[in-house]
Amino acid sequence: MPPFPSEVIHQLYARYRFRRNFSLEPAGRITYEIDPRTGLILASRAIMKMMPVGGFDGLVLGIPLDQPPPPRPQPKPAPQQQDDEAMQDDALFHSLYGS
């Protein structure tokens, strides 16, 4: 069995929230010290180069350095609400200028 690496480094991403949208932004790196005999994590050390202030909800994601960054989630479209006044305006417009 090949020996395990003595440490593994991951890129840290912090989740930010702005209104109803979320994004993952690079925030630093984390190093896992691994026992070469068992492969178990002995300790971890995270260094965040920036501390999120507004919108940070506490979630931090570690991804290996050779992996692509996580995809940015797309905002969900807001459901269209039926507005009676807008529908009446629309009907009036189409009755006057309709095709």
Task: Describe how the helices and strands are arranged.
Layout: E1 7-18, E2 21-34, E3 41-48, E4 56-64, H1 84-97
Antiparallel strand pairs: 1-2, 1-4, 2-3
Label the structural class: mainly beta
Strand order of the largest sheet: 3-2-1-4
Mean pLDDT over the residues:
77
Report, as a whole number of angstroms, the end-to-end distance: 77 Å
Radius of gyration: 25 Å
Helix and strand element order: EEEEH
- Low-pLDDT parts are none
**Main pleated sheet:** 4 strands, antiparallel
Strand content: 35-45%
Tally of DSSP helical segments: 1
The counted number of beta strands is 4
Number of individual domains: 1
Helix fraction by DSSP (H/I, runs of at least 4): 10-25%
- Taken from the alpha-carbon principal axes, the silhouette is rod-shaped
Describe this structure in words.
Strands 3-2-1-4 form a four-stranded antiparallel β-sheet, with no helix packed on it. The radius of gyration is 25 Å and the shape is rod-shaped. The chain has one domain (1-72). It contains one helix and four strands, in the order ββββα. It is mainly β and 99 residues long.
